[in-house]
Amino acid sequence: MGSLLSRLGLECGRKAVKEEERHLRANDRELNLSYKYSDNAIKTSKYNIFTFLPLNLFEQFQRLANAYFLFLLCLQSIPEVSSLPWYTTVVPLVLVLSMTMAKDGSDDMNRHRCDKQVNNRQVEVLVEGELQSEKWMDVQVGDIVKLENNQFVTADLLLLSSSEPLNLVYIETAELDGETNLKVKQALTVTGKLEDSVEKLANFNGEVRCEPPNNRLDKFTGTLTLKGETYSLDNERILLRGCTLRNTQWCFGLVIFGGPDTKLMQNCGRTTFKRTSIDRLMNVLVLSIFGFLMIMCLILAIGNGIWEYQEGSKFAAFLPKGVNAPFSAFLTFWSYVIILNTVVPISLYVSVEIIRLGNSFYINWDRKMYYPKNDTPAEARTTTLNEELGQIKYIFSDKTGTLTQNVMTFNKCSINGKAYGELLDFSGQRVEINEKTEKVDFSWNNLADPKFCFHDNSLVEVVREGNPEVQAFFRLLSLCHTVMPEEKKEGELYYQAQSPDEGALVTAARNFGFVFRSRTPESITVVEMGELVTYELLAVLDFNNVRKRMSVIVRSPEGKLTLYCKGADTIIFERLNPSCSNLTEVTTLHLNEFAGEGLRTLALAYKDIDPEYMEDWKLRHHVANTAMDEREEKLDALYEEIEKGLLLLGSTAVEDKLQDGVPQTIEQLSKADIKIWVLTGDKQETAENIGYSCNMLREEMNEVFIVSANTSEEVRKELQTARRKMTPDGTEEPTVKKSRSGLFCLQKTETVADEPVNGEYAMVINGHSLAFALEKDMEIELLRTACMCQTVICCRVTPLQKAQVVELVKKYKQAVTLAIGDGANDVSMIKAAHIGVGISGQEGMQAVLSSDYSFAQFRYLQRLLLVHGRWSYLRMCKFLRYFFYKNFTFTFVHFWYGFFCGFSAQTVFDEWFITLFNLVYTALPVLSLSLFDQDVNDWWSFQYPQLYTPGQLNQYFSKRAFVYTVLHSGYSSLVLFFIPWAAMYDTVRDDGKEIVDYQSFALLAQTCLLIAVSIQLGLDTHYWTAMNQFFLWGSLSVYFAVIFTMYSNGMFLTLTSSFPFIGTARNSLNQPNVWLTMLLTSVLCVLPVVAYRFLRILLWPTINDKVRYKVRQDKVLPPTPRRVQARRTSTRRSGYAFSHAQGYGDLVTSGKFLRRTPKSRPALFSQTDSPLAQTQPQFYRTISEREEPPLSP
Question: Catalytic site residue 156?
């Protein structure tokens, strides 16, 4: 029974036991299955074929309105209570349930399809001594699987062996962290001996004890016990699901975690049902409306009881059961509940779903958000959050792959005091470099990389002329690195770089004639200007985060010993020979220029070494390198000793290429008063660098606070110091406003008030400090300080910390948040935010699958928010205000009529008009308003991002706006009831034949109502289209056609009881006083609205009013100005190779990385559609130094 229920997707009531430690044995399925670990199948769907209908209906009837209309339907089945036909409720209810069910079913089918695709992937598994192809879903914990090059990692695996030397494998972690540069993992030596022998692998019976499933991507703790020996396991031995095997022919791994237990799925976070702030407000308003409805029904029921008591006795003789006033009042109460239910019509929810669906299609169809390079359109993956896009206050963004392309390009350099990389025209002015600018011709170099792009021909000229300083510069770049080369064909070189920075620098040296060709543990072979030169490699002084530099010591063929060093400029300058002081000053100026443009800079230096000193140093190095105690400290001391008295060669400037339009997008969003926080796993220097590149950090800011303390008290002190600098006169205690929200005000909320700040500030905080700052007793201090800053950058943060930061802002700011990222490490952040946006592209699709919206480039975010989001919010608010206006007006007319019909629950309008009012007569006009209206077009929306701020402040629809709408409806209903009533009271036709009756009054009242609400719709419409005109006039035409048809003799004779208003239309609408009454009521309804809007625009214009006035003034759009990237001088410079990792110097000198057998493997960088590979005709444009107007998107 339990298995049956589990297949149906239902819980059996068993409480899951928390796993404390995982224990498994290789090749022993029986033992491993006894622990009941999860298999490798994943499930992201909600329903199956058996649970869909009951579960979906259960979820839908949890919505208060749906349950309410089900209750109304039950009431209408009682003849004594029902005053309206059953179909007035059944038809719209079934329509709403069916539409929502179809949408939910479609979404879940897509999830099923994705799950099925992943679960049915094939992988080779070792079963009973043979490799068999199995589906991913059938793989179990403890199985040994074989992966081949370019395959996805099936589950979380312990790496056993590989085809590479030293049992290394190269993996791409784009699905996990968005980075496309390769990472290296290494198997234990004891398991590496298994190689690819199926027999040895089948006999492998190692036991693993490790941590239970968790979401820490960068940490793993466990042990492997084999033949009585215990070996330590860490993260370097683990291949995580979601990674891709690259440049490795094969590898074998032992399954540790499967399916939902893998770190990838653990980081997916809990899926929450996201609702917009308007949805939450609507729930509160609907509850209030129910209360208001009950009050109106109670008043009318009491009136009925009084009337029956005073007047009903006169009719007692004609009634079979006499008069029972209390019972009559009770029945009347429920009758009026049915009649007045139009204050919350179910068609409201139908219309809301249609509007959201339509606005989602606009996003999907927007060609300006389509990325042709990889054929990726924007996609609204949910239809329920569109209007929330117009209310965003905080954006949380990943860096790598989101703001940047994760592509490094060699842009500029400074050699011996001269800068290269800029172009000047004949007058000596700088020339802007763009895609049309002529590129340097490297055809003279047969080994040049065709994708490399450079524009300054003068650098090539000095290299080819044999300038010794320039050649030494590029010789250093070709020798001082840990890059591993691969030559598939003669002259076809591919570089495998741990750091994209190193790859860019070695590629630059290659194109300028110093081609790194091959290496052994003892030598480096370089082709220097066409000549093959082999250098003896004596030592590699490796990079680490403290040294921030690396050096190599080589012996040239002539026997000359040279140390080449590259690193952070501040570190290198401290170690220069005093004779370099003049060159240092000039190079510093160039570095400031490069850093001012946001480039990542390195300084290069060298020195010649005495052979005798080198022999002594090598002996001491060997002793230190084999020491068991304080090995690192001894090596660092030796490195410090030899890296002194260097001679400066120059500096490099590498661009960590931002995605197109990132600075402009951030500038636009900042103008819209949206705060942007960057949450990245990268190092602090990298994050700062990108901050300056995309103008989030600026030199003109008052101060950029760095929070990097390692204890709780120090972090608190740094946060408080920053806050006091920003607000010297501020209070020490935060201003916390406590309130209640939600249905029945059961939800307690605390809001930390914003504090005014003079000036612009930014804050950079690292992951260690953030862990302390997110503790319960310090989180408000963090929030106060961070929210005072214009920009916040959190670096070295874990996926969990990203989600915690988002939750902190949601908890205490009551603001709408958006998270945008591209990797699996961003999934929990994307799910935690009100809106999640995934960047789709080469970095993987994990974030996209968990997102609400997706597109290919960060720059499309401004169009999503400033255009689609703002329009969606504006349209939804207009729709709700108008919908409540027309329905409250409709209902109030019934309420007033109750006082003139003896509180008998008689309807003032024809039953058919009541049924068709919301479904036919007013449905399409209000939908056209909600789908096509816009206050200004997209061009003006970009020109004035301040138009976005009213949405952040909930100015268009709030409780106050709702109250104003109800008061407006009350006034209109008084006009629409009493003017027709007074005009028709005791009147006769012009020919004196007939006295005006109830049916004539009902026709006049409903016609006046429809005309008045149609005029109000016209006043609310800012953007008229052919569809608006057609639906508005068409609906009025349909109304008159319907009443003449339904009130005809033929319909009366066909169904007498259903069409009692025979001849009413033709008898009433040919009277002049009827049309004059319609005109009078329309004018009286509209006059206050027109007067109020005129005075408001004249005396208190909003930003929308001002911009719309300017639009009318500027009928012709001005030409779009061109933007020139602003130059900025800076005293800060970027550090060295921030994405580089420690430890590869030892690897390249060990000899173990060399291949046992030559194998072909794919290129590391195999893209051929890169912009770097494109050639364009030469195009120059002189740059003006004066500031130009901002670029309009």
Answer: no
